[in-house]
Design a protein that fits this description.
By secondary structure, the protein is α+β, with helices and mostly antiparallel strands. The protein has 33 helices and 25 strands. GO terms for molecular function: helicase activity.
Length: about 850
């Protein structure tokens, strides 16, 4: 609370008496005020009162602080703390509101939305204009204009009639009559007596208007009960056929409250269920492993080049559906994984003429990292990304569909909401999962919506997406924050869980403890936190296996994750039949032929299976490999347009006799050679569809080995988050900014000694001749005096500075610059003039 001897007359004066810590708190809460750094405190105060800055500050107030500002907007200007307390706590002086009000008022003062002492509280003018009631913009309080405002256009005779009907003595002028009426309406006892004689219908009308909106419609000949109210000024006309309930009357009927429901305390985040921390961490680790496998599978699917980039950017709906089928997930979840890989820098457009999406070189580096580190990179990218996959499929402002990887998906509030949701989870006992409704209620209290924002509650949607995405990614397990999630957030140690056991469906007691103050981390701090999360997760992830279990039904079961070389080879030799805790692979003639096409021989495949199987290699699988290998390459296809050659002319006779070969347009050139007008690739596919196992050959007659061609983009950087306004300044920047502002304020407010200097055109900067400037500088070096100078920099910008000259030589002055808080050298020809400071200010 302020106890100044001389009350400040402006916001600038109020800021001038603040200490450095208070100014730092203001600039930290409203970083837009130092972008760029103001020249002095007057400019800082002016900037703090601009509409854009005030709107931004109001949007970041919690509900009770905003309600306090709304109450000040309908109070007198200036208002006393007692009046504000009455508006917030009501006639009954709600003790909870009374206890919470100093904190809310302190928040408004810290953010320079309110200034002045407790006896003269002033809401900054722009905030009052935004929050005060008007016919065009009703107040959030539901209050209407005051008696004085509502009677501004009323005839003096009519005002005297109202005063008389209300039981007051008529006055000699309208001003005193309005004052008398206001005193009546603000006197609880006298108003009670006046309303006691009101008709029942009149009291019903007042009850309908009391909580707003305060305006109503009347006919030219109102009913008796409405006439009773109009005659006594309890309703006042504002326009033909329109009446309003005066603010003072509404406050009496409300018991002095400005708001119908005052919310001094944040709603508690309720723990809907609790689980053992080991279960939470194990479940989250399983989800983390699945997340890694899914991203790897996505990029493997796009290994040779992914879908084409739309002309407007992004994936087509068809390609997103195909990706969802390949990953065996729904389309919204497929969009999440695609966007996550993009945010982590693992995929990007290749930039070619026929532009397609493909893995980046960073993807290959990522694959070589340990699994926990790979997860930490994904989790960090998710936590800080502004791209929001939940918007995919929606519409932008121009009614265009928003596509995955396309433009228009950035929402600058996303990182802050994700961080806040996880912080709320960190405030619960270890292993407790919250109800989504209580999380949304808490977020709504911390950042209430105003006006049109309620129609599109983006923060609520972001919060719901955060809860589901955190579970998909393994940041949470069964809805509760995991140990690795807590480390990723940089949160403190968890609170202990309740001593009494709680069932999975039971609700924990409601906790009113505030969530821990976990601030967003700097990039360096986040990298450290991510490394800590990886160390916690590493022992929880399953160890990759070097074996599978071969079964007689031509399947192989991988009871866990496989080591990369084994998984890659098995992925070529067999088809994935099912996924889950154990992956089932099925061997087919086509999959075995695929392995032979990649350059492996039958003996290689037998040795591979024998080495990596914990069970004997089943005989059917051995027969399958040998049978396919025996026929593989027996036919050779080359370029004629295409030809088929085979040492077994009987097989060529069989092909020629087959009706399915008609589309290949084959012609026999020799007993062992067939020619085709189809290209080699189509000929290969056609013969394979007929049940043969041909091999492609080169122009030299060698078998061509078919290997997947890895397509990579040029080096790409991950997409940069779109910031939500200026970043919060760090301690170093704050300290430098405050020094500069105070020094500039000293230069602009310190009295100067009388001088013969020629006044500047604008009267702001000193003007002296070069000779006088040089003489004054040299004298200041000998006496150690501090000077006020005008200076024009190389860009032509004029500034004023306070300096203490140290040395003058060679056309330069070296001095300690109080404005910059450092020693600097200035060319004398750029100094417009110099003046000495008054002795009592040195």
């Amino acid at each position: 609370m302020s106890h100044q001897a001389t009350p400040p007359r402006s916001l600038a004066e109020a800021l001038r008496v603040r200490d450095d810590a208070s100014l730092a708190a203001l600039l930290r809460a409203r970083p837009d005020l130092i972008t760029p750094v103001p020249t002095d405190l007057t400019q800082l105060a002016t900037r703090a009162g601009t509409r854009a800055s005030v709107v931004r500050a109001l949007e970041r107030l919690d509900r009770f602080a905003l309600q306090t500002a709304e109450a000040l907007a309908v109070a007198a200007d200036p208002a006393s703390y007692k009046e504000l307390l009455g508006l917030m706590a009501g006639d009954e002086a709600d003790p909870v509101v009374t206890a919470a009000l100093p904190r809310a008022l302190g928040t408004l003062r810290t953010q320079a939305l309110v200034w002045g002492g407790d006896d003269r509280l002033r809401l900054v003018r722009t905030a009052r204009e935004l929050l005060a009631p008007s016919p065009q913009h009703p107040s959030p309080t539901g209050l209407g204009p005051t008696v004085q405002e509502a009677t501004a256009g009323m005839s003096p005779g009519r005002i005297q009639e109202i005063v008389t009907a209300a039981g007051l003595t008529s006055t000699h002028d309208a001003v005193s009559a309005v004052t008398a009426l206001t005193k009546l309406f603000t006197n609880r006892k006298r108003m009670g007596a006046l309303l006691a004689g009101a008709p029942a219908e009149a009291r019903e009308v007042l009850a309908r208007l009391v909580w707003g909106p305060p305006f109503g419609q009347v006919t030219a000949d109102p009913a008796a009960h409405l006439r009773w109210l109009l005659d006594r000024g309890l309703l006042l006309p504002t326009a033909p056929g329109t009446v309003v309930l005066p603010r003072e009357v509404a406050l009496h009927l409300r018991g002095g409250r400005a708001h119908r429901a005052t919310e001094p305390l944040p709603p508690a985040v309720e723990a809907a269920a609790t689980h053992r921390p080991q279960v939470v961490d194990g479940t989250a680790a399983g989800q983390a492993y699945t997340a890694l496998a899914t991203v790897e599978e996505l990029l493997k699917d796009w290994h040779e080049g992914g879908p084409a980039v739309l002309r407007a950017g992004g994936l087509s709906v068809r390609d997103l559906k195909r990706t969802a089928v390949a990953l065996d997930v729904s389309e919204p979840i497929a969009a999440f994984w695609v966007e996550l890989a993009y945010a982590a820098g693992l995929l990007a457009p290749d930039g070619e003429a026929d532009e397609r999406y493909a893995a980046t070189p960073a993807h290959d580096e990522w694959l070589e990292q340990p699994a926990a580190q790979r997860w930490a990179r994904l989790a960090e990218a998710w936590l800080t990304a502004t791209r929001t996959s939940g918007l995919v499929g929606g519409r932008d402002m121009k009614e265009r569909t928003l596509s995955a990887l396309g433009p228009g998906l950035d929402r600058s509030a996303a990182p802050e909401v994700r961080h806040r949701v996880l912080t709320l989870l960190a405030g619960l006992p270890e292993g407790a999962s919250p109800s989504a409704e209580s999380v949304l209620a808490r977020l709504s209290w911390e950042r209430p919506l105003r006006g049109a924002q309620r129609e599109d509650d983006l923060r609520a949607r972001l919060a719901r997406w955060t809860l589901s995405e955190a579970e998909l990614l393994g940041v949470t397990g069964r809805g509760a924050l995991s140990a690795q999630g807590r480390a990723l957030l940089g949160a403190p140690a968890p609170r202990p869980a309740p001593e009494e056991p709680v069932g999975p469906g039971d609700k924990l007691p409601v906790h009113h403890h505030p969530a821990p103050a976990v601030e967003p981390l700097s990039p360096t701090e986040q990298a450290t936190a991510s490394a800590a999360a990886a160390r916690i997760l590493a022992p929880l992830l399953p160890e990759p296996l070097d074996h599978v279990l071969l079964q007689a039904d031509l399947t192989a079961v991988a009871p866990g994750p496989l080591r990369r070389p084994l998984a890659e080879t098995l992925g070529v030799l067999a088809d994935v039949e099912s996924k889950g805790g154990a992956t089932v692979y099925r061997f087919t003639p086509g999959s075995v032929r695929r392995a032979l096409d990649s350059g492996r021989s039958a003996s290689d495949l037998h040795a591979f299976l024998a080495e990596h199987s914990r069970t004997p290699v089943p005989q059917p699988l051995t027969y399958l490999i040998d049978d396919v290998a025996r026929r593989h390459g027996h036919l050779r296809v080359g370029a004629a347009s295409a030809y088929v050659r085979c040492d077994d002319d009987a097989m060529l006779n069989e092909i020629m006799a087959d009706k399915r070969a008609a589309g290949l347009r084959l012609r026999r050139l020799a007993p062992t050679v067939l020619a085709s007008q189809a290209d080699p690739a189509a000929l290969l596919e056609g013969l394979r569809a007929m049940g043969f196992a041909p091999a492609a050959e080169s122009a030299e007659g060698d078998v061509l080995i078919a290997r997947a061609h890895a397509h990579r983009t040029p080096p790409r950087t991950p997409p940069q988050p779109v910031p939500d306004g200026p970043p919060v300044p760090d301690a170093t920047l704050l300290s430098a900014a405050i020094r500069a502002i105070r020094a500039g304020d000293l230069a602009s407010t310190t009295p100067r000694k009388p001088t013969t200097a020629t006044p500047a055109t604008g009267g702001d900067l000193p003007r002296t001749s070069p000779a006088e400037t040089l003489a004054t500088m040299q004298a200041a070096v000998l006496t150690g005096e501090t000077l006020w100078i005008g200076y024009v920099n190389a860009e032509g910008a004029a500034t004023q500075r306070v300096i203490a000259p140290i040395r003058v030589e060679g056309g330069f002055v070296t001095a300690y610059d109080h404005t910059a808080d450092e020693v600097r050298t200035y060319p004398l020809h750029r100094v417009t003039g110099v003046a000495e400071l008054a002795e009592d200010q040195l």
